Amino acid sequence: MNQAPKAGRPEKRPPRPLAVGSEYSLFYSSAIYIDAGNIHKFSAVFPGLNRIK
User: pLDDT per residue over 29-43, tens digit each?
Assistant: First the structure.
């Protein structure tokens, strides 16, 4: 599995290192869990939320 260079489109969600992935998922869940009403605010930090929303 080769990591493709970031082309500026984080839609495919390229494989991230375990450490970064864990931290990403943790904050990702916390952000939604704590501020479910302010998801639009996190959409800037997490481009993936734009699709989920």
Answer: 555 544 555 555 554
Q: Where are the alpha helices (DSSP H) in 5-53?
A: 18-34, 39-42, 47-52
Q: How many alpha carbons lie under 13 Å from residue 22 in its C-beta half-sphere?
A: 2
How far apart CA 10 and CA 7 sit, in angstroms, is 8
Count how many residues are written for the chain.
53
How many other C-beta atoms are found inside a 10 Å radius of the C-beta of residue 48? Answer: 15
CA distance 12 to 6: 10
